[in-house]
Amino acid sequence: MNPANHGQCHIRRNSRDERSEGLSREHLGHTNISQNGTEGLEQAPSPQELEDIAQSLQNQTPPEVKVVGPHGNCQRSCYGSVSSILPTDCGHLDDTSTTNTTGVHCPNMTPSKMQRRLKFFFMNPKEKWHARRRFPWKLLLQIFKIVVVTAQLCLFAQQRYSHVNYLWDTKISFSHMFLKGWDTTREVQVYPPGSGPLAVYEKQDFFQYLDYAITTYSTINEKAIGTYSYKYRDGDLVLPTLCMAQYAGGYVSPNNNTFMLNDTIAKSCIDIPVQMNVTSWSSEAFLKKKNYILNFDLLMNIEFTFHLHTIKLRVNLPFDTPECYGLTGKVIFNNHDHDGQMLVNLDVAAQVLECQGSIKLASEAYTLKVWRTFINVTSIMICIISLIMCVRALYRAQLLRKTTVLFFRQQYGKELSLEERMEFVNLWYLLICINDIFIILGSCLKIGLESKNYEGYLDTWNVCSLFLGLGNLLVWFGCLRYLGFFTTYNVLILTLKKCIPNVLRYSICLLMVFAGYCLCGWLVLGPYHFKFRSFSSTMECLYSLINGDDMFATFSSTSGKDPMVWWFSRIYLYSFISLFIYVILSLFIAIIMDAYETIKNYYENGFPLNELMKFVEECTEEPSSGVFQDEDDHTIHDVINSICCCGYEVC
């Protein structure tokens, strides 16, 4: 309780006591009360005594009533504001209390009190500091969180690159060893592609490619530079397998243009009992021996699968330590199109295995490893605290919203609109809660990945990087909230907020036109242009054209074998580029510039306010005026005085 209120409480109590004592004395002077409990009966007062009592009541000082008007703190209230020191259901109404946001609403709360409460709620951290000397802990925590999670991401990015790069290098090594005819030009992704796909066109070539892969597996320890070993299960070698997928039955007869086909796909696998260091192997003879007949007319694909173990010895302490992997390689022969071209590809999947070994860490490396663990744990703790604080702030805001809705309903008989209710939903806090959840999940996965005491596929690294990446993205987006406290930077945020609804409506119309061009281009140009061979590649090509990327290559790559298609491609590309670059993009810019000019005009002439904000703006008290001091933060001395002195609780 403030000292001023404490003094007023004594004065009010003394005045009440004095009035009560005077009234009691006067009343006793006109009544006759018996001194013993059995004989004393009160006599009816005479007319003269009644006149004396009425005269004494008229001479008493009337209760003080204060009308908040133009000379009050919150001036020019269009709703009217009357406050009294008379006791009510909620106790005495004290207009200086501004912090009761617990959701308990007093029926007789004054508008000025509600205005100060709402004004404090909509203050920024700097204004709240001046109002109550409340330290902006959430702001400090968010700044510290940015530093910690960014350092965590940098360390994890280096680790992730090492794992992904290792898997890619392993695939390149296996391609050289297991694929016959592999060329180094296929290792670099260039645009447009410098060579066609690797494929076989003759049956004899197919068996040669398959035999080459089998003999390479048999002599892997002798040929490979890398450290590889075979996989054993219960002491037995896990043999490579050859799996074939083909139609369950049917025949094709081009002579008389007849066919019969059972479209059920039948898959069968057979182990390849190849021994170590076998330099010669005939797959064709082995399949005939096993009564496996390959009907290439019905064949869909063939997969040669093998299993190997390896240890990655690349050491870049403390970020990388030796790791054990189980590698599953597949040489795939794809004949789905049945066009005389069987595509050949190799795929490698890596599974992290638990390693048994040790390594001596230098003192510097050990220190960095400890720091990495400390950053992971600190990141989790900070995000948990941040999540709790933001959820608490969101919850208290909803309690205040309910109080405000009830206040307007009881005082003015009106309901808050949806826009006014949304003023109590802080989307920045929701953004912080989401990024906290992402970072907590990613950090937990990161600790597990770095512990080396797990088995799993490298996809776990992708999931972990997804959580940490999205979390950091939202964390840095959240920095815009604090830049918005400065007028210069707030223009950008308000411009985006203003133009987003119009941009979304305009994008819906734009999407219709863009989808039409994509579908048309995919259908007509797909067979003649490699950029239009799929719907996704068509969208990527057209989006690139909007940004002016590789226009001449798109024009020149169109096949001219069919004149009608060639002329159509010219009309199609010219119309698309002209429409989207010169018209649609210009309208996009116009929408954004219109929003920017509107925001600039608001800064010059004032922002439009809804009814709720107009009600709040009627309170002209400055944050540093002292009326926003937190009166709920009582000391023990104040609590005792409030109980013994006034006997009521401030609402």
Automatic annotation (TrEMBL):
Q: Which GO terms describe its molecular function?
A: NAADP-sensitive calcium-release channel activity
* Pfam families assigned to the protein according to its UniProt record, in alphabetical order: MCLN_ECD, PKD_channel
Q: Where in the cell is it found?
A: Cell membrane; Endosome membrane
Chief localization: membrane
Ranges for domain Polycystin cation channel PKD1/PKD2: 472-599
Residues of the region (Disordered) are 1-47
Q: Which domain of life is it from?
A: Eukaryota
Task: Print the keywords alphabetically.
Answer: Cell membrane, Disulfide bond, Endosome, Ion channel, Ion transport, Membrane, Transmembrane, Transmembrane helix, Transport
Parts of the chain that traverse the membrane: 374-395, 427-448, 503-525, 571-593
Sequence ranges assigned to domain Mucolipin extracytosolic in this UniProt record: 164-356
Membrane topology, from the record: Multi-pass membrane protein
Q: Does the keyword RNA-binding apply?
A: no
PANTHER family assigned to the protein according to its UniProt record, in alphabetical order: MUCOLIPIN, SD02261P
What name is this protein filed under?
Answer: Polycystin cation channel PKD1/PKD2 domain-containing protein
State the organism of origin: Scylla paramamosain
